[in-house]
Input
Amino acid sequence: FAGAISRVLRDPDLRRRLSEAGLRNARDYVPDRMLERVLAVYDRARAEGAPAVADLHDRPAVWETHEQELRGALDGITAGSKKD
Output
């Protein structure tokens, strides 16, 4: 580990590449991107007929409720980020 840190400290090109890669990777973890992925999972599960976790007797209503909440949250996050 110490050798790897030493190498990064001595090599400006490696530092730059690692920094750029880290920033690219970080963009995948902003709230709106993460929520889009969660919605995609829900959409796939729903398309495959997976039961809702909260209530197995009322699957469609539970899915619709959660989907609307998540999409509403996504809209709020996206709207907030556009103001910045």
